[in-house]
Every structure is written in C-alpha cells, then in structure tokens.
Amino acid sequence: MTLRIDFTDQATSLHHDAILKPLREFNGGVIGSPGAASVAWTLRDPNLDEIVGGLYARLGGGWMFVELLVVPERMRGQGCGRELMARAEALARRKGCGGIWLDTFSFQAPDFYRKLGFEVFGEIADFPPGHTRYFLQKRLA
Question: Which ranges carry the N-acetyltransferase domain (predicted)?
C-alpha cells in the first residue's frame, strides 16, 4: 500500500481528530477502554454571567490530567485556585484515579502546585526561551 503525505500549516480540529482516531483505536486494543471523560468547574463573573476562568480536566487511564486552570488576576490570593484543585482532587479520588498530573511554566504557578503536594517529574529548560516548563504529579492513596 502506498500512502501520500500531505502538509498543511493551517491544521484544524478535523486534522487533529482524524489523526487521533486511529491512535485511540490502537491504544484501546492494548489497554482497553480508558473510560475517558472531560470535566470542568467554571468561575463566572456574576455581573456579566460569563466564564472568566476555571479548571478543565480529563479523566482516563486511571489518572486525571488538569489541562487548564485559570483564575483571573483580580481573584488570585482568595483561595479560588485551591478550591478548584480540591474539587478536582475529590472527584479524582471518587473516580478511583491513581493520581493527577499537569504541566505549568516557571512564570505561572509551579510553587502553587508544590504547596498542594505535587512533585516535579520532568522539566524542559528554555521552553520557552528563558523559562522552564514543568510536569508535576500527585499520586493519590
């Protein structure tokens, strides 16, 4: 069988989904259905009733991946981030996850996550240049 390789520098979600589909099928054949689900807790501005931040995570493979955590600058230092992470951890425990993992940059919140019990398991120096990207995990008992 001969395959053709096409390139685009304007990739869309259609490209992403088409490439992801056979990967998920292969992985499912090896590890079975991971029971993947996406979850979110949102922070809303009560005056505008719009989402201004929150936490978005995916559950699968027995772990929770916190993909996004954003607390608006005006709300930082009031415990919103801790509350969102506590809710995510509680759900991960209820769902039987072995742990939670996430990534952050040196200019974002690595110390915040360390205070919550997360440990660095990997890092990429100078990504982006002058900064570090950290990968953290917290194993759940």
Answer: 1-141
* Full residue range of the structural domain in which residue 121 is found: 34-139
What is the domain-level CATH number for residue 49?
A: 3.40.630.30
Q: What is residue 30's predicted lDDT score, i.e. its pLDDT?
A: 83
- Work out how many domains the chain is built from and give that number: 1
Residue matched to tokens 């939670």: 100
Sheet holding 37-45, edge to edge: 37-45, 50-60, 63-70, 99-105, 132-139, 119-125
The answer to pTM > 0.70 is yes
Alpha-helical regions (H) of the chain? 13-31, 80-94, 110-115
Q: Would 27 be classed as within a structural domain?
A: no
* Tokens encoding 62: 């027995």
